[in-house]
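By convention, the token line describes the chain's fold. To illustrate:
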Amino acid sequence: MDHHRLLGMALSFVPGMNAPLVRHMEEMGVGVEEFFSSGQQELAARLNAGVSPVLDRMVRDEALFKARKESEFMERHGIVSFSLTDEDYPSRLADIDRAPVTLYRLGSADLDADKMLSIVGTRHATAYGVRYVGKLVEELAPYFPGMVIVSGLALGIDSAAHEAALSAGLPTVAVLAHGLNTIYPAQNRDLARRIIASGGAIVSEYPSGVTPYRSRFLERNRIVATMTDAVLVAESADKGGAMSTAAVASSYGRELIALPGRIGDEMSAGCNRLIRSQKALMAGSAADLMTMLGWEPKALVAAIKHRDLFPELSGSQKLIYDALRLSLQPMPVDSIRERTGIQIHELMANLGEMEFEGIVERLPGNRFSLISY
């Protein structure tokens, strides 16, 4: 580790150091070399600050000692650090007032990838939420091969998001609430290994030895919420970690998207509330998400042969399309009729026309689904 990067990391070991103070140092022309080498009174004058434990010489020396010990651990395990004073600090995180002073990464994922999407949700995921996440990531992957999927390595939706990315050949980043010397929950140790081996990464703002603690998970959520372009809440009860992540994402201007569920489903209550209160856009197909985020797929023209990715429909056909889009499995005709309220003769006529146009396909058992390209 070069000396400047070591000093940047050492800032995070100074009790009371935070992003606003680091930025104040930069505004006052105080670099990390001067911060750790200057006398206390000189430093206080340069920063226009009074007596503060942050500037105490012994405190700063102790921080340097801890940083050197941490760097030894990092070099043994291939961990790298990104501090706010480093030019390669992730740009999306750098913009927030509560940015981690230092972020540790094990793995090779690009934390400044062109397209990044966070997917979060309940630990008690249902088959509906897991299938949706898998299908969405699978549909996005061909259009954005370098896209990074970010989540928190928890059980449930988080794990589903990471697994979906691995299956689709996309890099995925797991943000942890503890040091990188351990994995929590233990059931996901193999998943973490596969994430790293596939070109992804596990990251944390905490140095080695820091253990999981309730408040640290809430702190971790702000990183998941802000290191990407948008946050998708796949399933959530009315309260929980995913809703905390959603609130942070919204407060920092990140696009917020939620998967709707049936009224009365406990694990969709939070998502339904986000949509109902107009805090989140309603999740649908990959095409819908691209439109919401203004993402232009590079392979769009080559991939589409029979129809547009975003068909312009109206009336009954729009109702049918939306019903099929929100279903994670082929729908029988009766289910489509119940969902749309369209009379059977009109429904069959529209389905026949949509099948001819290459929008839907008919499957055994008189079931229908959208055609994906």
Summary: Residues 34 and 43 are 8 Å apart (CA to CA). The radius of gyration is 24 Å. The chain has 17 helices and twelve strands.
